[in-house]
Amino acid sequence: MDLYEAMRTTRAVRRHRPDPIPDDVLRRVLEAAVWAPTGGNAQPWRMIAVRDPAKRRALRDLYLPLWKEYQQEYMQASAGLTGEAAGKRDRMLAAADHLGEHLDVSPVLVVFCFDVRRMSITDEGLGRPSVVGGASIYHAVQNLLLACRAEGLGCVLTTLLCKAEPVVRTLLEIPAPWATAAFVPIGWPASKGHGPLTRRPVERMAFGDRFGGDLFA
Amino acid sequence: MDLYEAMRTTRAVRRHRPDPIPDDVLRRVLEAAVWAPTGGNAQPWRMIAVRDPAKRRALRDLYLPLWKEYQQEYMQASAGLTGEAAGKRDRMLAAADHLGEHLDVSPVLVVFCFDVRRMSITDEGLGRPSVVGGASIYHAVQNLLLACRAEGLGCVLTTLLCKAEPVVRTLLEIPAPWATAAFVPIGWPASKGHGPLTRRPVERMAFGDRFGGDLFA
């Protein structure tokens, strides 16, 4: 599949069929993640591909109340939306609600872990939340999402289960001080799957030489 | 370009020619970044494409002492390497040192900024460094790196300049509370450019059902 075509059509696909993912397909999408860059090429992250039904149900049971809480917050924060924007939000929330109720239906849930001792964090002590540890993890997650899209697999990035990290750590036998950064349910799309994205135009996302400056004259 | 081929060969390219990047090429790689997912589709990040020579020199002058300090730490931490591993490290450090001395030669330096108020951070208060804010930024950076690879442009992810964020914010007129997450110098490769990667095998990066568990029987 063409790179640009894959990037242009990789979107959250939240309704999955329970059918299993063949080992060779799963291996290709996981290997794509491994190719991503990390600080100092330390590769301080690992994936756990959860296929065990009992563990998937346990993760669903942890996820659902976190999702319901987030959904309430999101509804309140977006209460001012009207028209097409409100319609889009409602369709997104309906799909995300389906995911919350059926997280255990996706045949594979990939859990990204990281070693907190080796994250090359350069933005500590700046008086704002640190994000740079993510530079050694989320490039891999993006490669996984793109590879899933190329294979015809639906997937979506979620991070709510980080709130339940101590329980997840016990469930998946993740040793301290390894931590969790992302949870990606993967499955064959139950409905239309990947397709066009809703994003701001590049002119509003990219500036020239200074914040707010015009880039393309 | 094929997606898997792009992901398999996107590596740090640190020696760039000073030749300018045509607007249409720059626009394509920046637009690819825009397609990436973010928490709640908030897109709480922006890019500043720095082409102004004086600003690029100012960023080089900020970067170089940070790089020299990091280089010392990296040398000490990797002092135990021998043979081919030591050789690889030395070649990487030589290229990275070249980048530090010539950061202003790359015709474009893309600075990724983010809005700290809208990062959907779910891993605060866990007693370990937070990384989840990065889930709304680094997917975009990875798309940019992959698009550069498809266009034949060299590029490399750097984060050291976050340490100089207050000065960078003034230089690029970044308003508070926006912050910086990544700095990607881009240019046409001065030597061989992209190619094979050095990564662990997928069997060592992906587990089945529990941390350390075999995935592929």
Largest interface: A-B, 98 and 98 residues
C-alpha-based Rg of chain A, rounded = 18 Å
The CATH topology label of chain A is NADH Oxidase
Instruction: Briefly note the structural class of the backbone of chain A.
Output: alpha+beta
Using the alpha-carbon principal axes, give the shape of chain A. Answer: globular
Strand order of the largest sheet of chain A: 1-2-4-3
Q: In the CATH classification, which architecture of chain A applies?
A: 3-Layer(aba) Sandwich
Unreliably modeled segments of chain A:
none
In quaternary terms, these chains amount to: homodimer
Number of strands of chain A: 5
Percent of residues of chain A in helical segments? Answer: 40-55%
Q: How many DSSP helices of chain A? A: 7
**Integer average pLDDT of chain A:** 96
CATH level-1 class of chain A: Alpha Beta
Question: How would you describe this structure to a colleague?
Answer:
With 217 residues, the first copy, chain A, is an alpha+beta fold. The first copy, chain A, has one domain (3-205): NADH Oxidase (3-Layer(aba) Sandwich), CATH 3.40.109. Chain A has seven helices and five strands; from the N terminus they run H-H-E-H-H-E-H-E-H-E-H-E. The first copy, chain A, has helices at residues 3-9, 23-34, 53-77, 83-101, 138-151, 165-171, 202-205; strands spanning 45-50, 108-115, 154-155, 178-187, 206-208. Chain A has a four-stranded antiparallel beta sheet, sandwiched between helices. The longest helix of chain A is centred in the N-terminal third of the chain and has 25 residues, at 53-77. The relative contact order of chain A is 0.22. The mean pLDDT of chain A is 96. Chains A and B meet through helix 1, helix 2, strand 1, helix 5 and strand 4 of A and helix 1, helix 2, strand 1, helix 5 and strand 4 of B.
